[in-house]
Design brief:
The chain has one helix at 22-33, and strands spanning 2-7, 14-17, 39-43, 49-53, 57-62. The chain is of the alpha+beta class.
């Protein structure tokens, strides 16, 4: 699934693909915004960890679950 993270005071947003479910990501965001966590951590499909401090968070856009692709454009 594609995730877009907007960070305050940055002109570019962070966009990545993750194998985490939408529910896992939403729970992490809710925990951070409620004060239970000071950061939001997302792992992308390559295994890289992206950690964003809650105080710098502008927004998070969680895309739809990825479905199997058909055709010549498979990656």
């Amino acid at each position: 699934m594609e995730i877009t993270i907007g960070v305050q005071n940055l002109t570019r947003e962070l966009t990545l693909e993750s194998d985490q479910s939408a529910d896992e990501l939403a729970a992490a965001v809710q925990a951070a915004l409620s004060g239970k966590a000071t950061t939001i951590e997302v792992t992308d499909v390559r295994g890289r960890r992206i950690i964003v401090p809650t105080a710098a968070l502008g927004y998070i856009e969680i895309g739809a679950e990825a479905k199997g692709r058909v055709g010549f454009g498979q990656a």
